């Protein structure tokens, strides 16, 4: 029996004979055991990070009843039957999130945010009350194989362990909450805005609109309304977990749909998360890249902490998989199912506001399907053409309405992604980004891509099949984005490849299974040997390379540094060539395995030590620096901000406006004032006249004219900032009254800017020091840490 057949035999529909009486199954053989293990581990992890089981239970109940259940029923309705329970629940979770967000937006705009819950309740009531819909409450009876269930549990447990890598930075105590992830206050501020408003005003600078993919913040806001859980707890602990877990299962469901086997599905999910770019270096990357789990070459890794630090990416990734499942079904069945077309036409409405990268990527993939089949098969794929029209329409709508035609800092820069290469940045190789250096890094990056996804070569006889072209198109766009674009934030061009990674992994797995048909444990031995050989090669090169990090210096010049960076990968390339020659020469001894399968497996072995090293570093770093309330990142939130924010929420109206003297998260001689100060809007859930102006569309537009990246720009409405700061530096009835009467400010938020973390540096003109006379014109209402809140008289 082949491995694929064994997996199918372990799953499948239970026969009448087996289901006619009580079935006794050993606990360790139950498919529910892996799910229970993951659930218990999740509750334990959250409890350790200060989320009580009661809070976790409330949140889980809301997701189960308000998100997953209605979505699952609709997913079954669209398919006219239940599929496997894992797929139904995972896809239902994604569909449920889409329903929640699209219902919350009009409800919040009408001033009744809780009315959004009427939609999922109506769905549940309809499926309970309408006789023809009641059958969708029943499952299919098809069981997932035990091995598949444990594979999903392994990935889920790895992702839980990885969550601790992020949670440890997001502490509830000072100074940990002050030195948190740079984007957490940004996420909190937008969540507060959409919790209380729906007129798309940037909460930290009211002169600017919101031109951004903000739908995930509507989910956070809606969840907070229903459960009463603080947005900080949702964003920093709870909300991303069900999204990530559903994403893991959905990738496996997609892999099974494409490859036709449970084995292929499990391998697709494993490859998406655990097959990373080979790292033959004996030395480690710089601190930032280690902390955020980057690899030496950009591989679109889903193990980077962006799945936690960028909820928009996580939300968009989750919603996109059901769309791909629908599209693959439509392409294979020639588009005959109207229900699937209806859902396919509506789902992009949620995806367009979840993450801006997905619809353009899909558009290009569909274009490749239409054009390649037209040219090489002389056939117009009408399903792909119709899908192209749907995606193009939603993309045009999003560009005009949601994003206002703004690029948000993403510009055409040849080899732009290579300028942020982790290995190049750590060593100083790209400090002077000459073209030949970028080309070298591109060559190394492409080699890593080949090692991870070379299995797709097994699909050469299916090259012009629609689903192959579609997935390949997504991958090509992701790779091209790293070659052609750059973002001032330093990483956004990589989100294209990160979003395409599951589909590249599925292509590689599908191709590898075709290269090794009729695979059994016995015939798989050469592949296991090749895989182990690949692992040993990496460890051998690391041992020779040494642990000393090479850096550009007067004694270590360009030629030496270039050789040090490239020679480990040159060795890998030579090993691949030698292995290919030997596999071809002795192909008659490989049984039913093709020589290409042996080489592909060798290259996959190159990738395993990367994830092993990252997981292996998790424990010693936690032991050394602490598992909770770590304070290792940048200082961005002033002491007392959470306390003052909570007080202000309790003593103000949601329409009240704040003014502040604080506009910088920190100051440095090299860069000046970093404008990413979002803490006031984040913790108060109130709008601020001018707290910061970073991460706005206009700030990105100002980069070219001002010659600096967006967080260092000067505010483009100078009179507003002059009037704002005058009330703090020279308070009087006139200056303070102007804020109240002309701008509508009620509260003054004061931060002690003289107490900066960089105490050895001189004062900066950006520091707005507060006059002691402020108390004569505004009443001090609250003080915590280095924050004081005044109310204008």
Written overview of the protein:
- It is a single chain.
- The chain has 793 residues and is mainly alpha-helical.
- It is built from 31 helices and eleven strands.
- The chain has a five-stranded mixed sheet with strand order 8-5-9-11-10, sandwiched between helices.
- A hairpin with a 3-residue loop joins strand 6 (666-668) and strand 7.
- Helix 7 (146-167) runs antiparallel to helix 11 (240-259), helix 17 crosses helix 19 (382-402) and helix 18 (358-376) packs across helix 22.
- It is globular, with a radius of gyration of 27 Å.
- The chain starts with a helix and ends with a strand.
The major sheet is characterized as: 5 strands, mixed
Count the helices. How many? 31
Residue fraction in strands:
5-15%
Radius of gyration: 27 Å
Sequence stretches where pLDDT stays below 50 over 5 or more residues: 13-23, 755-763
Query: What class would the helix/strand composition place it in?
Result: mainly alpha
Which descriptor suits the 3D outline?
globular
Our measurement of the CA-to-CA distance between the termini, rounded to an integer number of angstroms, reads 82 Å
Main sheet strand line-up: 8-5-9-11-10
Specify the helix fraction band. 55-70%
Would you count the extended β strands for me? 11
Average pLDDT number? 91
